[in-house]
Each structure stands twice: as structure tokens, then as C-alpha cells.
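Record minuted for completeness.

…
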Amino acid sequence: MARIGSAHPREQSASAQASLTVLGTWLNQTSIKEAIASDRWLQLAAALHLTAIAAAVIGPTSPPLPIFLTLTGLALVVLALNRAQHGNTDAARPAADLRTLDLERQSQRLVEVADAASRARHESEMRSQLWAELTARMSHELRTPLNAVIGFSDLMGAELFGPLGHDRYRDYTRHIRECSRSLLKCTEDTLALTSSLAKSNATDTARTLSLDDLLRDASEFHAAEITNRGLTLNLPAISGVDITGEARPIRQILINLMAEAAERTRRSGTIAIDVAEDAETVALTIRVEKAQPRADEGQAPLTVCIARVLLEQQGSGLIETDDHDSWQVTTMFDRPAQPDFFTIG
């Protein structure tokens, strides 16, 4: 039997050339090329094997060269097949595995974003709740003593337990009552304004409100002043007319507009309130005929300014008309959405 390496040099060269051709075809496979490109050991084995083939092609070789050629070839084949079939790096993964990895990363990112949004929403709700509790506490602490002062001043002014004894005391009592009511109204303005501004970016708290109840509540707030000055307030008969909005700001809007109307009405004059409605909106107009001019002509009163800001926070506006003969303001409120005909209640 012939020993390894005893073949004729020409036969060795032809065999090496044939091996080089077969190796080139095998290395041209996509999976093998990707495996070699991603592994340094495969690159080293391929370089040694190609060097051995080149040496065999160039000229005669000693017996160890074919053995080395065979060993490096086997090592290259084993390493390449193992890497192509069982690679564990991202670069050697199939496209499907990479897509799966991307989807997992995107899903994890979405979960993190959802958790962050949930925490932010919870913190916002907690802040809104704390602010509502603070506003309610402030309202109680401010209104309770003011209502007591107003009540006692009314009691003294009516002289239910006997005469005050001097006319100057009656003047003092009237001033106490008027100043207390003015301070109470400023408190209501401040609380309503801050509450509306705090809720401007919070969850919508609009609900269905009875316009008739709101008008009567506002008129009761001014009942004492209207009676003392001999004014007449004509409320419309609007039973069943509903609007949407926040109760406290809308109540304060009506109180402020009625306060300005009373301020512009001459003694024994009339304040007229009209309501016009259509399918989507309700228009409210407060009008004073033969209105007296403002003391600070050319400047909008604080009551109207606050009412305008509150209306803008509600998504509405205020139109004020002031001339020598009359004064009026008009605003719009949204009506509740009608239930769908096919909705099962």
C-alpha cells in the first residue's frame, strides 16, 4: 500500500486543485459564508486550509502537507457546520429569530411606557383629589364665619330683640352686612376660579345641570340686596331646561352677572333674564333697561372679568353690550347630548 504523500507531484497538484474547486463551491453557500464571517476560529481554519491548498498547487510537497491539508479541511467543515446550525450570537441568528427579538424588545418598551403613563395618571388623580379636599376645607373655613356675620347683622338690622337705640347703630349694621356679603362673594369668586383653573387639565367633570335651579340659587344669593333696593328680578319659566358643565363655576358665573346687573340697575328698576334654546345650545341673556353708568367708566368690573374667565374655562364666552339706554350680557351653554334612539336604557 502506498504511503501518504508518495503520489507524484503532478497528481498532488491536480488533487489539490480539485479540492480547491469543491471547497470554493461549498464555501459559496450563504449559510456557510455567514457562519465564517461571524466566527474568528472559522476564519483561522479557512485561512490555514487555503494556505495548504495553495502550497500543494504550487509544487511538490512533503508528506506532512497532505495530512495537514486534510486535518484543516475537516476542522473547517466541522466548525462551519456547527456554527451554521447552532450559532448563538445575534449576527448568526436567522432573520426570523431577529424579528422575534425585535418584537420582544418593542413589547417590553410598550409595557414600560404603559406603566409610566399609569403612574402619571394615578399621581394626577391624587393631586386632583387633594386639591378638591383643600378647596372644600377652605370653602368651609371661609364661608362659615362670614355667614355668621351676615346672619347676625341681618338679625340686628331687623331689631328682632328690640331697638338698637341709635340711628348710627343701624348704619353700622348695614355696613357690616354689605361688607360681609361683598367679602363672601370675593371668596366665592376666588374658590370658583381656582377650582376651574385646577380642573382645566384634569378629567372632565361636566355633568347635567338644571338651569332653573342654578338661576334660583343665584337669585337667592342677591335676594337681600334686591329687596332692600326695591329691585324687580324677572326669572323665566324654564322648567326642564338642562345644560352641561361644572356646577360651582356656572353658579358663580350667574351670581357675578346678576351682581353686575344689580349694580347697573337704578333704584326700583327691573332686571330681566331671557333664555333661548335650540337643539344643541342654550342662550342666556341678562338685560337692564335705563342702566346707570359705571363709576369707573371704561374699565370692565371684576365681577364680569371673573365670569368671562370662568366661561372660557367652560368652553364658552361672554358678549357684553353697554350703551346709554341699556346694559346686557349674553352667554351660551351646551345642552346634554340626546341619547341614541336605539340605546336600551
